[in-house]
Design goal:
The complex is a heterotrimer of chains A (about 200), B (about 425) and C (about 650). Chain A has about 200 residues and is an all-alpha fold. Chain A contains 7 helices and no strands. Chain B contains 11 helices and 14 strands. In chain B, strand 6 and strand 7 form a beta hairpin. In chain B, helix 8 crosses helix 11. Classes of the chains: A mainly alpha (about 200), B alpha+beta (about 425), C mainly alpha (about 650). Chains in contact: A-C, B-C.
Chain lengths: ~200, ~425, ~650
């Protein structure tokens, strides 16, 4: 096994025509598709922001930019940990991989927790629900869809963490972690766009 | 330009040739009844539809020329290079040429040129048909058309009509009619397009192409009828169960006729008078015609000279009216909850869900342009609206929701009342 | 690197017996083999068979529509039934006929053309099919329920589709069904993209790809980038209907025009999703039967790419009458005219291909040339629509109906019919009778034109589409009558076509390998192709690689024997195991979708809180899907190895659980 380890080239897959691993290509293509998903949702939000019906509550009175900034920062940090995880498995360092994955999951959960708190706060304190205004409709749908992506990512990461203990995740499977990493970074970047378009825009 | 504006001679020639050319694509035009049916775009009666038709012929000609050239090349290739079946497999294959960039580039150039021929007038007409030309804007007459499932409401935004409010005091309100848009000929008409429910589309083929009525969106179109006439229109965007039955008419009148019509409309509902000497009309319910499902609701007097038929409709009945019966109808209009939805100015009815019926007797059609306005058809409509227009609001939210039952006598009284509202 | 590639095969030792849930089915015949298949050819067959089945359904709907309109003031159908007919006719023909038959060719032919043994992700491919099947069933469930089938038109404009105006579950089923079809299409398209980019045989550079494979690639990109738009639109309307959100709720400021934009951002690329595969098929058939290469291959490819690209910039030409304003209308009119150029270029190149060839007028060629004529008419009437002010008269009228049927029947369907005849010998080893094939072509061709040509005139005479009746005084009687006569003829032609096809499948004349003297790689295979496709992965030396190979047989033989040795050195041909989990995942999705779309929200008095039959069904279905996906991940992409004799027959199977490459 050790000889194999030394020769694994993580940037070239000899079995494919282009040298890019199939899974990586699949993920890139999927992310292109996902861009369109979020693009449509963000456009919907922005269009309704430009055409607010009378009686729409000003978004600034609803949002709490401090909390969201914090959770944004946490999500960015989780991306860093994800990058470390990919790096760890490519070096065959399973212990480091486990810690990085665990931290990523932990940060992901904090982000989700913040979102749950934010949602309940908006509904109960600020009286913004998914049905009572178009702002609520687009806001909850957009950020909820993003939250769903984070949740799927957390479940996926957890599966990987388990695999790293059972021995099914080894250095030669680095592509699986790398593929997951692409997804996680994408979800992160999308959040930065959402954070800008939904939250920061209200403070300009 | 191939087609300068309003080129009568050349335009007509081209139209004829294009029609012949297109038709001769297949042997003869045996399937065509005519090219000037009531909703034919081949028979424009106003500047907007004429411009649209001229543009259509530009595109039609360019496309025909392309078709002849490309199709000709294809036909030659098909016949000239056809192999004899038996030698096809054994013979040497032809030269394995891979293409010729020069031919490709020149063909691309030619296609771009052909598209420019279409593009230039297209852009010109986009601006022309969008809104009333500046020069004529002051002369434009403004109307708001509202689509509802499944009829059209027309509000004359600048006309104030007389009414009597519930306390008996005289008042005014905006003039509103339904399903028949009466406009002055020779003046640009600007129509604001609104809807109260789903998306509809406002289309009078002989006067102007369609523009949609979309919720939360302020659309408009303009048209002008060059001469007095009676024009057919229809909803052109699928809007639910009875979309096919959502029709309307546009009646263009000379300015004087229009003013006469307007002053009659401004007035409150007509009250029938006993005419001395004339025998009161008999109770007619026994003689009402029965109709099959989906049977055409028109007689041919609207095919020969619809405008005359419409004018005829404006007149009060020559034979006497049964005033008692009409008064009973007026009472029933209230007690059978018709007045919840319909307005009859002067009779104290102010419903706004359904069409304004103040002068319904003077319209040439009822049920959104579907039925000719005569006693039999009115009876057909109020007897069972659902059999005429499935799923309509009057049936679902009126007859069914309020459990309305009309006896033959009730129907007879209501028919006489509605007919008297000239 | 070499060490790694080998280590996979050697390092794996037999593990302890697997738990029952991870049982890998290996049936090669019977029901289980079809439910668990991951063979791209079998999946292609399943797509094709479902497509043809739904073609009969959609065809019956079309005939009922035409019979209703045969005479004015007809009462064969009520307005409600008629609305269901045209809604389901459109939805069926687009999503359940043309797309799956296209997908059948993508699946069956594309991997063969690039010299691959399967697609990149075989189980994902099976999942795509089962999701498609579930979506198709959900869409059609309404016929068997009292709610009825969907009835808001195939583009389901809000707010007609909101709960206020369509209270029954029919629209829920439409929304759910289309969402599933979107998921299925995206998953399949991702797979094709990876396959084409990454699984090409040695020497098969991008510019040597058969044009059909190119068009598969473009179509897949269009699917991946355009379906999200409709999925989001459908999610929004679904949220409105289920949870009372305000996306299209007019009274709370919803903008129904947004639905139109989202729908057509998908809808126009969808048009090219329907026509690009057809163009690919035509670009294979014409060179084969003209016996010369495609004229201007690079230009055909690039025009395909520019059609795909421009296809995203023309969506609002479906909305010329929505009052977009002058500048937007002009911009979209301009773009629409621009997209005609690459389309026209393809037409020139096809004629250039025929020019100087030796044309053999076999049945596939008849359909292909029929395509050229009909698509030309459809394309030209499309250019006429680009002139927005003229379109104001044509939009929503029978002129449009005529236009898109010329593009979709005369275009897509003729090409698919041509493709079925063309590849039938390869797929099943039998050839369709020339006489019956040509007879069906002529009946279809004549019936089609008699049906749809008069519709141009009906539209220009002011007949709006989607109307269940018309009055006899509108001047539309003769046109409608002939259109119905044509439709019946078309129905007869299609019936001849189908019966011939079914007869040929069972009893048709057996054919030799490569009966058309074709040009592309798939024809190098014996027919029908074996499960592993290529005993030896071919090496490609030229565009039209099989044509080249046939003329360099010595070189080919030497290469083949070298490669065979190589393959054995790698441990034989790797074959993935079959899997039942894609099917189970599909079942879970079905249950969850029924929960979301059809089961009613519970009466709160009976089921306090959130719990009720709707939520329960959805969660049960979701759980089945989730567990299936987890097991799918756990079972892994294991496979076995085939060892072939030098003549290509299977010497033995090696089931020592080797992992995939």
């Amino acid at each position: 096994m050790t000889t194999a380890v030394a020769t694994i080239d993580h940037h070239h897959d000899p079995t494919t025509t282009t040298g890019i691993p199939n899974k990586k290509l699949l993920m890139w293509a999927f992310l292109a598709s996902d861009c369109m998903f979020f693009g449509c949702l963000i456009s919907t939000h922005l269009i309704y922001r430009l055409h607010p019906p009378p009686g729409t509550p000003p978004a600034r009175e609803v949002f709490s930019i401090e909390l969201t900034s914090f959770s944004t920062f946490i999500l960015l940090m989780s991306s860093l940990m994800m990058a470390l995880a990919v790096n760890a498995i490519q070096k065959g360092n399973l212990k480091s991989l486990r810690w990085s994955l665990l931290t990523t999951i932990f940060f992901g959960c904090i982000f989700l927790g913040c979102q749950v708190f934010e949602f309940t706060n908006f509904v109960h304190e600020k009286h913004l629900t998914i049905t009572n205004s178009i702002l609520g409709t687009t806001f909850f749908t957009l950020t909820g869809t993003h939250g769903l992506h984070v949740l799927i990512g957390v479940i996926w990461l957890t599966g990987m963490l388990i695999y790293s203990f059972t021995g099914r995740l080894q250095e030669k499977d680095a592509i699986d972690v790398e593929m997951m990493g692409l997804y996680w970074h994408f979800v992160d970047i999308v959040w930065i766009v959402i954070f800008t378009a939904v939250y920061l825009l209200e403070y300009i | 330009m191939l087609f300068p504006k309003h080129t009568q001679g050349l335009g007509r020639l081209c139209r004829l040739a294009a029609a012949l050319g297109a038709a001769s694509l297949f042997s003869g035009c045996y399937w065509l009844d005519s090219l000037n049916g009531p909703q034919s775009t081949f028979d424009p009666n106003g500047p907007v539809s004429r411009h649209q038709q001229d543009l259509f012929y530009v595109t039609c000609w360019v496309c025909l020329v392309i078709f002849v050239l490309v199709g000709g090349a294809l036909a030659i290739a098909m016949f000239r290079f056809r192999a004899k079946e038996d030698e096809a497999m054994s013979e040497e294959p032809p030269a394995q040429g891979h293409g010729n960039p020069m031919i490709e580039i020149s063909l691309i150039g030619v296609s771009v040129l052909a598209l420019v021929i279409i593009a230039v007038p297209t852009f010109r007409e986009i601006w022309y048909t969008y809104d009333v030309p500046e020069a004529e804007a002051a002369n434009a007459y403004e109307i708001t058309a509202t689509g509802e499932q499944w009829w059209f409401k027309f509000d004359y935004v600048n006309e104030t009509a007389k009414t009597v409010d519930p306390t008996g005091k005289a008042g005014t309100m905006m003039l509103s009619t339904a399903n028949e848009l009466v406009v002055p000929a020779g003046r640009p008409i600007k129509v604001n397009l609104r809807t109260v429910d789903v998306i509809h589309s406002f289309w009078i083929p002989k006067l102007a192409g369609k523009v949609d009525m979309i919720p939360n969106r302020g659309n408009h179109l303009w048209f002008e009828a060059e001469k007095p006439g009676y024009y057919w229109g229809q909803c052109a965007e699928f809007c639910g169960e009875s979309h096919a039955l959502m029709r309307f008419r546009v009646i263009a009148l000379s300015p004087r006729d229009f003013n006469d019509w307007l002053s009659n409309q401004m007035d409150t509902a007509r009250r029938a008078q006993e005419t001395a000497g004339a025998a009161p009309a008999k109770a007619q319910f026994a003689s009402y015609k029965t109709f099959k499902t989906n049977e055409i609701g028109f007689t041919d007097r609207y095919e020969t000279s619809p405008l005359d038929a419409w004018r005829e409709q404006q007149k009060a009945p020559a034979d006497g009216e049964d005033v008692a019966l009409i008064n009973k109808g007026r009472e029933l209009f209230n007690s059978k909850t018709c007045s919840t939805c319909h307005t009859v100015r002067g009779d104290g009815y102010f419903g706004t869900v359904g069409p304004d019926l103040t002068h319904v007797g003077a319209r040439s059609t009822i049920a959104a342009g579907l039925l000719e306005n005569n006693r039999d058809e009115i009876h057909r409509w109020i007897h069972n609206p659902n059999s005429v227009k499935p799923g309509n609001t009057m049936w679902v939210k009126g007859y069914l929701a309020n459990n309305i039952k009309l006896t033959a006598d009730d129907e007879n009284a209501l028919v006489n009342y509605l007919e008297s509202l000239k | 690197m070499e060490a790694l590639a080998k280590s996979d095969f050697i390092a794996k030792e037999e593990k302890a017996a697997k738990p029952f849930v991870l049982w890998r089915p290996s049936a090669k015949t019977g029901l289980i083999s079809w439910l668990t298949t991951i063979d791209h050819k079998r999946i292609g067959f399943l797509y094709g068979a479902s497509g043809l089945l739904f073609f009969i359904v959609g065809g019956i709907e079309a005939l009922l529509i035409r019979l209703q309109l045969m005479v004015p003031n007809n009462t064969l159908l009520t307005s409600a039934q008629y609305n269901e007919m045209f809604t389901m006719h459109g939805t069926t023909m687009i999503f359940l006929v043309v797309m799956p038959i296209g997908a059948a060719f993508f699946n069956f032919i594309m991997p063969l053309q690039i010299g691959a043994r399967d697609v990149a992700f075989p189980r994902l491919n099976a999942f795509s099919f089962w999701t498609f099947a579930v979506g198709a069933i959900i869409l059609n469930l309404g016929w068997f329920m009292k709610d009825g089938a969907p009835d808001a038109g195939w583009f389901g404009y809000a707010p007609l589709t909101t709960r206020t105006f369509s209270p029954s579950h029919a629209i829920d089923m439409w929304v759910m069904g289309l969402q599933l079809l979107g998921v299925a299409s995206i998953a399949a398209a991702l797979n094709f993209i990876v396959t084409i980019i990454n699984m090409r045989a040695p020497g098969m550079t991008m510019m040597r790809l058969p044009v059909f494979t190119w068009m598969t690639l473009f179509t897949s990109f269009l699917i991946v980038l355009s379906f999200p738009a409709i999925t989001i639109a459908l999610i929004e309307i679904m949220m409105d209907r289920l949870f009372g959100t305000n996306f299209f709720e007019v009274s709370n400021g919803g903008l129904p025009i947004l639905w139109q934009h989202l729908f057509w951002v998908f809808g126009h690329p969808e048009v090219y999703i329907l026509i690009l595969p057809a163009m690919g098929i035509i670009s294979e058939i014409l060179p084969t039967f003209a016996r010369k290469p495609l004229f201007g291959y690079p230009i055909v490819v690039f025009s395909g790419a520019s059609i795909g690209f421009l296809g995203f910039g023309v969506w609002s030409h479906h909305m010329f009458t929505t009052g977009m304003g002058t500048a937007a209308t002009a911009a979209f009119a301009f773009m629409t005219m621009a997209i005609a150029v690459p389309t026209g270029v393809k037409m020139f190149n096809w004629i250039g291909t025929l020019w100087g060839g030796h044309l053999r007028m076999r049945t596939p060629m008849m359909f292909a040339i029929g395509f050229l004529w009909m698509f030309m008419i459809g394309g030209l009437s499309g250019i006429m629509h680009a002139a927005a002010p003229a379109d104001a008269q044509q939009h929503g009228s029978y002129f449009v109906v005529a236009h898109f049927h010329y593009v979709l029947i005369g275009g897509s369907l003729f090409a698919l019919f041509a493709g079925i005849h063309y590849w039938f010998p390869l797929m099943f080893g039998r050839k369709v009778s020339e006489f019956w094939g040509k007879l069906s072509f002529w009946v279809i061709f004549i019936g089609f034109n008699v049906t749809f040509f008069p519709m141009h005139f009906l539209g220009l005479e002011g007949m709006p589409r989607r109307t269940f009746t018309y009055d006899s005084n509108m001047g539309w009687n003769t046109g409608n009558f002939w259109a119905t006569m044509g439709a019946i003829t078309l129905g007869v032609g299609v019936a001849i076509y189908f019966i011939t096809l079914i007869y040929t499948y069972y009893k048709g004349e057996r054919t030799i390998k490569d009966p058309w003297d074709a040009r592309t790689q798939e024809w190098s295979l014996p027919n029908p192709p074996p499960e592993y496709n290529y005993a030896v992965i071919p090496t490609v030396h030229a565009r039209d690689s099989w044509w080249y190979t046939k003329r360099h047989l010595d070189e080919y033989k030497k290469e083949t024997s070298d490669h065979l040795k190589d393959d054995e050195g790698h441990g034989g041909i790797h074959m993935p195991f079959q899997s039942i989990y894609p099917f189970f995942a599909g079942c879970g999705i079905f249950i969850a979708s029924v929960g979301i779309a059809i089961v009613d929200f519970a009466d709160p008095a009976k089921y306090p809180g959130f719990w009720g039959p709707k939520v329960a069904t959805t969660i049960v279905g979701g759980a089945i899907m989730f567990i299936s996906v987890v097991l799918w991940a756990i079972e892994g992409n294991d496979g076995y190895h085939l060892h072939l004799n030098p003549d290509g027959s299977v010497r033995g199977e090696d089931h020592s659980h080797a992992k995939a490459h």
